[in-house]
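Dissemination and training. As part of the outreach component of the grant, students in the summer workshop were shown how a complex can be specified as a set of sequence lines and then modelled as a single object. The example used during the hands-on session is reproduced here so that future cohorts can follow it. Participants entered these lines:
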Amino acid sequence: MTATSPSSGTTRRASVAPPSGVFSNPRRLVVRVVATVVIGAILIYLPQYYPAFRVGQFNTVICFAIAALGLNLLTGYNGQISVGHGAFFGVGAYTTAILVADHGWPHFATLAAAGVIAFVLGVLVGIPALRIRGLYLALVTLALATVFPQIIKRFSDVTGGAQGMRVPKFRAPDWTGLKDDQWKYYVLLTCAVVAFVLVRNVVRSRVGRALIATRDNETAAAVLGVNLAFYKVVTFGLSAMLAGMAGSLSVFNDPFVNADKYGINLSIFLLVAVVVGGAATIFGPAFGAFFIVFLPDWLPKSYPQLSPVLFGAALILLMMVAPGGFLGGVHQLTAWAKRRLRSSSGDPPAAAASPGPTSGTTGPGDELA
Amino acid sequence: MELFLDRLVIGLGQGAIYALLALALVLIYRSTGLLNFAQGEMALFSTYMTWQLIEWGLPLVVAVIVSMILSFIGGAFIERAIIRPVGDVEHNPLSIVIVTIGLFLAFNALVGWVWGTDGRIFPKALTTTLNLGVTTVSWQTVVTLGVLVAELVVLYLVFQKTKLGLALRAVASNSESSRLVGIRVGRMLMFGWGLAATVGALGGSLYASTLTTLDPSLMAVLLIYAFAAATLGGFDSPVGAVVGGLIVGVVTVMAEGYISWIGGDLKLAFAFFLILVVLMVRPQGLFGKEQVKRV
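and obtained this result:
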């Protein structure tokens, strides 16, 4: 059992196999290190450059990115479509709001509580989800998303209901010398980096291959010894946990919660973020979160009623042009460009003879195609 | 007892509306294996069309019929222009879900853009009630139930007694073989979408005439009830959708009335609970056929 990792996982997702190529190929290693340093520097510099309003938007992007990351683990890698993660996000947000406002907990402690509660709820939803597949699961989770605000309203003595509740602000400690919005940004960014690294490692491990094998062919995965029920339920729990922690962090950023913030639209936007960014890619959700926060900003403002129409239309168009989402599309383009380059340089043997990372990293684009 | 009968009648009236939208969902599911998240919003758009036609001076019945014809064309067009290019649902369910969600958002926003978000007053055709001795039934409910039954009969006749219906059923059962025997599969899918949009238009218009005002947020909740109805009846059975709709209508009204802590707020949660229980206990629904998956 130890050695029999599902073969479909390793062959179909060559890019998640241990990337030994990075170390055997020093040029790639250098490119990676430089890219990481440059992107890291930009991310760290951003809140110094932009005004508080923009930084607040970036903070929202980070929260959505973490939630979409969790949803991607479930929907992208494990193939369980959820249109209800807004509810877990909301559970996390309310956990933090209630504990901070009514019980005087420090913000950071509530983050852990939100994660635990969302994990338990995720497992509870994940167990019936074992018997519900594909579009039915999408439907049940959609119903969950619709029901959540109503439950919040029903128990308005604890939650504040439709009026909502205000939470004490998450302030920057004096020793940092940062403004509140910058402090929030760095805290959120740190959490996001930790979450992305953890998910990346999970996906590239044996567990990740089991998840992908389950998505691609449940029967085959079961035959190969993957414990379907266990993996599916735990994935649901982890995915809900990330969404819940993202919701908790969103209250760090914006200290106001009300029932209608966590309705069906939030759930839809999270799924949109996953698919637009690129399902089953590590960084896709980050791009997707950026897209859903900033696209309404870029759409023409002269007709405010028109922009959601365009948003829907853009979504449909994207699915027609690049069903693999943004990153899927980029991978397709680079693969195409590489093929063109090779064929035009008239050196096919060299290309065919290098089985290394170049031919191995066709990436998530094709596995979605 | 009188209260119970009143609630039963109200429940049946609401259930008939759920059943009409559930029928639309079932029609698309049967022909394409797809759950159309935009079905409610498409019906909303059709309902606004009906309202607009009435506003332009058409009599109610004519307006509904014209709106149904336009919806048929629109539904068929959406299948051809938007759904088909994305690919089939077996192969890529996530893309299809996103596309129907895109349609959901676009149609909802379109209604807001064209007609504004303020409530519009939809004319009430029937305000009188029918006295049955033990309870009174509004004519509205009677007509809604009558339309529902008539629609079911028409659909049954079309599907079971015509060549077109045979072709539709053939495509639903095995599209590849249908293509081989010369059925134009694409046309049948367009027809299926058109039919669903038509049924949705009728349901939406009837629903609107029971309400005081028409506004863009009308359908999102109705869609969940319709999903519950279709799940309960079985997604591949039109009769199931109708029976499921009536049961969901009656049960939610009874739960709201008799179990005080459910009340109006948790009525929807109750429908959700119902969906969950059905899927756990009998995933194929009351009237659905069990699906066997082969390796």
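Confidence is low (pLDDT under 50) at residues 1-18, 348-369 of chain A. Students were then asked to discuss how this feature might be tested experimentally.
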